[in-house]
Design a protein that fits this description.
Length: about 425
C-alpha cells in the first residue's frame, strides 16, 4: 500500500487535541540497560495479536500465520505402501536367500493388488498399496529373475521396505500450532491432508516512516548535507519478506508536530508503526515527543547492545510503535530483536530471541566488554571446517553487511577470545526472513 503525498498533510484531530504538557514517556529517564530478553518482552507487550482471520486457499497462504492450531484429519499415509520398486512378499517368520517364488500379479502406484498366498509374490512399485497377505517388500536389486518367478538374493524379514499407514501422522495429531508461519514445508503437510483452505491471521499492516532533516528520498537530488534514506527501503523489504502488508509512509522532517501528524494518521490504519531516526534522548531527537503529541506513549528501552542506541517501544491509538535508531546497522539489529518480537506477538506466537548456531572464530578477538555485540561476519570454509571471520564495521556502514553472511553475536562479558572459540552465528537468511 502506498500513500499519496497529500495524505501526509491532513492534520488529524488527535494531534491538535493532545495536551502539550502532559507526562510523556520521553520525559522519563531511559531505563537502566536491559538484557535483550527483558527488552524483547517489553517490546512485545505493546503489541496485540491481529484477530482478523483470512480464510485462504492453501497456495495463497505462504508467509501467513495460522489463526488456529491444525489437527490431522487423516492418517498419512492412509494405507501401508511400498517404499521401493520390487516384489511384495509374505515373509512370515522370515525367508531365506535362494528361495524361488512365483510372481502372480503386478501392482503399480494407484492400483490395488489381490491377496497373496503363502509362497507367492507380486511385482510392486513405489507408492503402491501392499496387497493383503503381504508383509514385506524385496527390492528389485535383491532378486534374480527366473522365468515367471524370482529368486531371493538375501534373506527377507517382515516389515522390510513398507511405509506403514500413519507413519507420518496419525488421525487427530496436531500438525502445527496457531501462530505458526505457513511455509513450503507446512503447505506440503497440509496439502498431504487434503486441506485446500486454511484460516490465517490477516497480515499485519506495518508502516515505515523515516525521520530527519538530512534524509532525502532516493531519486531526489542530494543536498550538500543530506544523505539518502537507506532505512525505509531496508525495513520495507524486511517486512515484506516477513509476511507483512507494508505502508510506505515516506520521510518526515525533524519537527515533532509534523511527525505527530504523520504518526496519528498512520495509527488509524496500521497494526505497527516503525520509525527510524531521532529515537534517542538528544535535543534533536523527536520521535518520543511526536508519539506523545499523537496521543500515544513511547517508552525508551536501552539494551546493553552494540550497535544500537536506545530505541522506543510503545503504542499510538491501536497501533504498536517502534522507534529505531537512525544508523542503518543499529536500525537493522534493533529491528531484528525488538521488531521481530512485536511481529511475533502480532502473529499470535510467542516472541523468542533469535537463535544463533555456534561457529568457531577464525581470528583472536579483543574488545571492550559490557555490551552484547552483533558483528557482520563471514563463513570461511577451509579443509572441511567452517570458521567465522569478523568484518570491520560500525553502525553506519552498509557495505560490511552486504559482504557478510550473517551476524556473529559476542556475549556482553567477553573481552578476549582465542581463535576456535565458538560464537553464535545468525545467518542473514534466517534473521532477515
Ligand atoms: P539519529 O538516530 O537520528 O541520531 O541518526 C543517527 C545517524 O543515522 C545519523 O548520521 C543520521 O543521518 C543517520 N540516519 C538517520 N536516518 C537515516 C536513514 N533513514 N537512512 C540512513 N541513515 C539515516
Ligand atoms: Mg536525527
Amino acid at each position: 500500500m502506498q500513500l499519496k503525498a497529500g495524505e501526509y498533510l491532513m492534520p488529524p484531530l488527535a494531534v491538535l487535541d493532545a495536551p502539550a504538557n502532559d507526562a510523556c514517556a520521553c520525559d522519563r529517564p531511559t531505563s537502566a540497560k536491559l538484557s535483550i530478553d527483558a527488552a524483547l518482552a517489553r517490546a512485545a507487550a505493546w503489541a496485540s495479536p491481529v484477530t482478523d482471520v483470512d480464510f485462504l486457499p492453501l497456495g495463497a497462504a505462504a508467509g501467513r500465520f495460522l489463526a488456529h492450531s491444525v489437527r490431522a484429519r487423516l492418517s498419512s499415509p492412509a494405507f501401508d505402501r511400498s517404499a521401493v520398486d520390487g516384489y511384495a512378499v509374505r515373509a512370515g517368520a522370515g525367508l531365506e536367500a535362494g528361495e524361488r517364488l512365483p510372481v502372480i500379479g503386478r501392482i503399480a502406484a494407484g492400483a490395488r493388488g489381490t491377496r497373496l498366498r503363502e509362497g507367492e509374490v507380486a511385482r510392486i512399485f513405489t507408492g503402491a498399496p501392499i496387497p493383503p497377505g503381504a508383509d514385506a517388500v524385496v527390492m528389485q536389486e535383491d532378486v534374480r529373475q527366473d522365468g515367471n518367478a524370482i529368486v531371493l538374493a538375501r534373506p527377507v524379514h517382515a516389515g522390510a521396505h513398507i511405509r506403514p499407514a500413519g507413519e507420518d501422522v496419525a488421525l487427530g495429531d496436531r500438525l502445527a500450532e496457531g501462530g505458526a508461519r505457513v511455509d513450503a514445508r507446512l503447505i506440503a503437510l497440509l496439502a498431504a491432508q487434503g486441506i485446500a483452505m486454511v484460516a490465517t491471521r490477516r497480515r499485519p499492516r506495518v508502516a515505515v516512516l523515516s525521520t530527519g532533516d538530512e534524509v532525502a528520498e532516493p531519486g531526489a537530488p542530494l543536498g550538500p548535507a543530506a544523505i539518502y534514506d537507506a532505512n525505509r527501503p531496508m525495513l520495507l523489504a524486511l517486512l515484506e519478506v516477513s509476511g507483512c502488508e507494508t505502508v510506505d509512509a515516506g520521510i518526515v522532517r525533524d519537527d515533532p508536530r509534523e511527525q505527530a501528524q504523520r504518526l496519528s494518521m498512520l495509527a488509524e490504519r496500521c497494526d505497527l508503526i516503525v520509525t527510524s531516526g531521532g529515537a534517542s534522548v538528544g535535543e534533536e531527537d523527536y520521535a518520543a515527543r511526536a508519539a506523545h503529541l499523537a496521543g500515544g506513549d513511547a517508552e525508551p528501552l536501552a539494551m546493553a547492545l552494540k550497535p544500537g542506541k536506545p530505541a522506543l517501544v510503545g503504542r499510538i491509538g491501536a497501533a504498536a510503535f517502534l522507534g529505531l535508531p537512525g544508523n542503518p546497522v543499529s536500525a537493522l539489529v534493533v529491528f531484528s530483536l525488538l521488531g521481530r518480537a512485536m511481529l511475533a506477538r502480532l502473529a499470535g506466537s510467542t516472541p523468542s530471541p533469535p537463535q544463533g548456531l555456534p561457529v568457531p572464530l577464525a581470528e583472536p578477538l579483543s574488545r571492550k566488554p559490557g555490551r552484547t555485540e552483533f558483528v557482520p561476519a563471514r563463513l570461511l570454509r577451509e579443509n572441511g571446517m567452517v570458521r567465522l571471520a569478523l568484518l570491520s564495521s560500525n553502525s553506519a556502514r552498509l557495505q560490511p553487511l552486504v559482504d557478510a553472511d550473517g551476524f556473529a553475536e559476542i556475549p556482553a562479558d567477553v573481552a578476549h577470545a582465542a581463535p576456535g572459540t565458538p560464537a553464535a552465528f545468525h545467518a542473514f537468511a534466517g534473521l532477515l526472513g
